[in-house]
Write a structure and sequence with these properties.
One of its GO terms (cellular component) is cytoplasm. It contains nine helices and seven strands. By secondary structure, it is an alpha+beta fold. The protein folds into two domains: 56 residues, GTP Cyclohydrolase I, Chain A, domain 1; 130 residues, GTP cyclohydrolase I, C-terminal domain/NADPH-dependent 7-cyano-7-deazaguanine reductase, N-terminal domain (GTP Cyclohydrolase I, domain 2, 2-Layer Sandwich), CATH 3.30.1130. Strands 5-2-3-6-7 form a five-stranded mixed beta sheet, with helices on both faces. A two-stranded antiparallel sheet has the order 1-4. The termini are far apart. It binds guanosine-5'-triphosphate and zinc ion. The site of zinc ion has 6 residues, from loops.
Length: 212
């Protein structure tokens, strides 16, 4: 059976896989064993004997967002409410994996919206962040997907998402800049159109993050 994940599916984040992956767990474990051999290790020594299994399990967990959909995680938690005030959930921890190196992206998201007749369960905002984080990502796409999801679900007056993250591929290897972190934002509706609304959001999230 083939797994049809198109680039558009991944970009839009509406993907819900219906088929089993075309590669078995055993084949994945064999690939990890090959990696260990390539690293000059002995995959049969005591400490490594179960490592292929563990690595496959861990990677599947870290990418489990591919198998979730907005409908599943929402569980109907969208409510009619007449409020025009900004709702902000800040400091949502994010653990994602960069698609270039499959190394961790550690950070936080701040998510705000201004309702237009509907509000969403607060925890669902964090769950949406988690679903997109548990995929192979670039930070820009992760940020945009969170904003697009809320926009699509609530049709609010506006959505603002800021993600601040440190990329282990820039910290532990490559350019090796442990203190660096990256800010990305996605502004929709009034947050894009009205500098005062955007400024209010930015002043509410101002703080000094520390990821290590
Ligand atoms: N825009 C963007 N770039 C990312 C993200 N995560 C990793 N990268 C970058 O992806 C790029 C991949 O560049 P390559 O030159 O193909 O890979 P590389 O040789 O491993 O690059 P170095 O990290 O510079 O050693 C690097 O510049 C990474 O910093 C992300 O979330 N967004
Ligand atoms: Zn990377």
């Amino acid at each position: 059976m083939t797994l049809s994940i198109s680039r558009d599916d991944i970009r839009s984040g509406t993907l819900k896989t219906k088929a089993e992956p075309p590669v078995s767990d055993q084949e994945m474990e064999q690939a990890v064993r090959t990696l260990l051999l390539g690293l000059g290790e002995d995959p049969d020594r005591e400490g490594l004997i179960d490592t292929p299994k563990r690595v496959v399990k861990a990677l599947k967990f870290l990418t489990s967002g591919y198998h979730q959909s907005l409908g599943d995680l929402l569980n109907g938690a969208v409510f009619h409410e007449n409020t025009n005030e900004m709702v902000l959930v800040r400091d949502i921890d994010l653990f994602s994996s960069c698609e270039h190196h499959i190394l961790p992206i550690l950070g936080r998201a701040h998510v705000a919206y201004i309702p237009n007749g509907k509000v969403i369960g607060l925890s669902k905002i964090a769950r949406i962040c988690e679903m997109y984080a548990r995929r192979l990502q670039v930070q820009e796409r992760l940020t945009a997907q969170i904003a697009d999801a809320l926009e699509g679900l609530l049709k609010p007056q506006g959505v603002a998402v800021v993600v601040e993250a440190s990329h282990m591929c820039m910290v532990m290897r490559g350019v090796q800049k442990p203190g660096s972190w990256t800010t990305t934002s996605a502004m929709r509706g009034v947050f894009a159109a009205d500098p005062k609304t955007r400024q209010e959001f930015m002043s509410l999230i101002r703080h000094s993050p520390s990821f290590h």
